[in-house]
Design brief:
By secondary structure, the chain is an alpha/beta fold. It is built from 15 helices and twelve strands.
């Protein structure tokens, strides 16, 4: 089948679909990943076809931040969504038998798929279906079950409302959700009992390993020159934390691998750019990160404890999950050199964090998050052939 995967956002919203796309292609499907131009090398290096969606999420963030007021910021975002609408419509029109969509563009993807009379399923990297068991990511915790459910419906309504003008301009009607598969482990987020039968938790979808990638010799040498270091990186977060990080490394008395293009390497630190987490994280003593869904999964897969430093959207949700799993200390109320150093030392000095991380990793290793996606496509293919 010709499978179109539609996603929009940061690198973390794209990378998991590269590995999933490879699995689908090995099963005989033809996969096109629709994503922004910024992620073209990531998609093409995985051997997948890339349909370029207009817009740049990084430039969008900068433009909204620089906007002179809330009305101007909303106008910038509306223009981004308008372009995205044309892009998704063009991607489906280019040829697809099924559409698989990330959460962000889901209302748009479903409407376009419905126009072309092809099936559409959600591929969500964070919980995206209302439940009484917890509030949706990005919403305050501690609510009652009914308040959790109401917050989930509010989230969905708000997401759909973003696309009302775009759908109207394109002459599209809102479409039902269809099946939804969540690409995270049930060890981390057990499937809520009140989710419909069409909603699954599959296990993580892992990013593709870059073809021909080899670690820099200088990094290999640094790792061999002493005890396992601590990884510190904040993904697509743009705030400069280099001074806090440098001071925390010194206060904690650790070696560190720091993912940054702003920091200055200290005597016990090594700066890296884009290094595959599946190679790097198992060699770390702990991982300090922003608690994005993909990095959270990579740390759990590696079996190392974490120091979550969440900022926005779903990051506080994953940070809380890491703490509840027993693989991370509580998220810091504020990020200072002292608080970061204290959390790093807690990860290293309390064996329970590493022991629990190893237990979780062993359970995750038994899961195959791509299998339910392949099963769904097989059912759709069979229905198409016999329908």
């Amino acid at each position: 089948m010709r499978v179109l995967i539609v996603t929009a956002g940061s690198r973390g919203d794209v990378a998991p679909f590269t590995g999933l796309g490879q699995r689908l292609e090995r099963a005989g499907h033809r996969v096109t990943l629709a994503a922004h131009e910024r992620f073209g090398p990531l998609v093409r290096d995985a051997g997948l076809s890339h349909y370029v969606l207009p817009g740049d999420p990084v430039e969008l963030t900068r433009a909204r931040t620089a906007a002179p007021g809330p009305d101007a910021a909303r106008s910038v975002f509306a223009a981004f969504l308008d372009e995205l609408g044309d892009g998704v419509l063009g991607a489906v029109a280019a040829g697809a038998d099924v559409v698989l969509t990330a959460f962000g563009p889901a209302p748009l993807s479903r409407a376009v798929a419905a126009r072309y009379g092809i099936p559409c399923a959600g591929l969500y990297l964070a919980p995206g279906v209302p439940t009484r068991e917890f509030p949706p990511p990005g919403m305050p915790s501690g609510a009652s079950p009914e308040e959790n459910l109401a917050a989930g419906h509010t989230m969905l309504s708000g997401t759909s409302a973003l696309y009302v003008d775009v759908l109207r301009r394109l002459g599209l009607a809102a479409a039902d959700s269809g099946p939804i598969l969540h690409g995270f482990s049930p060890v981390v987020v057990p499937r809520p009992a009140d989710w419909p039968a069409s909603v699954q938790v599959t296990g993580f979808w892992w990013p593709a390993v870059p073809s021909g990638w080899e670690p820099p010799a200088s990094l290999v040498s640094f790792l061999a020159d002493g005890p396992p270091p601590v990884f510190i990186g904040f993904g697509s977060m743009t705030e400069d934390r280099s001074e806090v990080v440098a001071d925390a490394v010194q206060l904690a008395g650790v070696r560190a691998v720091i993912q940054s293009d702003r920091a200055s390497p200290g005597a016990t630190s090594f700066l890296v750019g884009d290094v595959p987490h599946e190679w790097l994280f198992p060699r770390m003593a702990a991982v300090v990160h922003h608690a994005g869904a993909g990095t959270t999964g990579a740390g759990l897969r590696a079996g190392v404890p974490a120091v979550p430093v969440p900022v926005l959207v779903d990051q506080p949700f994953w940070a809380d999950r890491l703490h509840r799993l027993g693989v991370a200390p509580p998220p810091m109320a504020s990020l200072t050199a002292e608080s970061l150093a204290g959390s790093i030392r807690a990860c290293l000095d309390q064996p329970s964090y590493r022991e629990r991380a190893a237990e979780v990793a062993a359970r995750i290793a038994t899961e195959d998050g791509a299998a339910p996606v392949l099963e769904l496509l097989s059912r759709w293919d069979s229905a198409c052939r016999h329908g």
